[in-house]
Every structure is written in C-alpha cells, then in structure tokens.
Amino acid sequence: MKNRLKVLRAEQDLTQAQLADLLDVSRQTVNAIETGKFDPSLPLAFKAARLFKLPIESIFEDEQ
Amino acid sequence: MSPLTQNQDWKNTNKHNTTRLAKWTLAWVISMAVANFGPQFIWQQDLITIMAIGTNFMMGIGMILANRRQLLGLDELQQKIQLNAMGLSLGVGLIVGLSYSNLDTTNLIASHAEISHLVIIMGLTYLVGIILGHRKYQ
C-alpha cells in the first residue's frame, strides 16, 4: 500500500517523532509506514486522516 | 487534553507496564529459586515446599497478566514484532523440544533432556526474533 504520509508530514513541518506523538505510536512505526514496510490498521489510518483533515483514500492508496 | 499530552500518557503507561512486568518477572524468578533451593538448603518440611511452589505458581500467573497488559499497551507494529518473535519461539521450542526428547528416549544422548535447556532455547529464539523484527522495520 502506497501512502503520502511523508509528504503530508513535511508540509506540516513535523518530524517523525512529532507525528508519532500525535498518532499515539512509536517513531519506528511512523518510519515503517512511510517507507512502506508496514501497513497501518484501519483505525490508525483513519486517525492519520483525521489529523491531516483529508479523506483516507487521499493518504493511502492500494497498489493493486 | 492535547494530543501531545495524550502521547506522553501513552509513553508513560508503556513505561509503567514494562516496569511492572520486570517486577513480576523478578518476583517469579526469586520465588522459583526459593522453591527449588529452599528444600535443599533452608527447610525440610513438605508443607513449606508446597507453599513455596504455590507461591511461585501465583507469581507466574501475575507475570502472565503483567505481560498481557504490557503487550496490549504497545502500538500495532510493536505488537506485530512481539507476535512474530513469540510465534518463532513457540515453533522452534516445540520442534527442538520434541527432537531433543526423542534423542533422550531413544538413548542417543547420554544425559537426560532437561526442561531448562528448552527454556534457554525458547528465550534465545525469542530474543533473536525481537532483534530481527526491529531490524526489519527499522
């Protein structure tokens, strides 16, 4: 699953640690999602969508 | 409450859960040592031995509950890493343990198969699983 988390984070001028704080996860988790190594659960994806005030599909995209 | 304060709570809760688990584990290990060495070096009464083993068992239950709470407090990637490591440890423990037992029952090894060897194998496998998991998602 592709995502725009890194771009959105940069637009908000947030570090990975700050985004992790806002999402209640570890910095390692944010990094793993950004690099595509780990796909977040639906609740976490929705949380990110709420944080950036965007629809979930404009952040996460199915690669198939 | 601001999101940053919430996360600080999440981190503090995790830290607290980990400390609680460490304390229960330490108590379990100490009660295990007392139950094992007490009858040899401190007392000779069976009743005290039964009480020591019962205490060790209860400490084990407490450790399991503390472990459960600690795992549930982790975020989803951390839980995944833990689950993979525990699965690896269980699988290797089962396979190695039964092969080791077969070697013993067929008298292919001179010494008896000790449960402590299995615990060591499982502990080391779990540790390797955790390290590999963290490296994978680095």
TrEMBL record, chain A:
InterPro entries xref list: Cro/C1-type_HTH, Lambda_DNA-bd_dom_sf
GO MF entries: DNA binding
Pfam families found in the cross-reference section: HTH_3
Gene3D superfamilies: lambda repressor-like DNA-binding domains
Keywords: DNA-binding
SUPFAM superfamilies: lambda repressor-like DNA-binding domains
PANTHER family (alphabetical): DNA-BIDING PHAGE PROTEIN, TRACRIPTIONAL REGULATORY PROTEIN-RELATED-RELATED
Name of the protein in its database record: Cro/Cl family transcriptional regulator
Organism: Shewanella frigidimarina
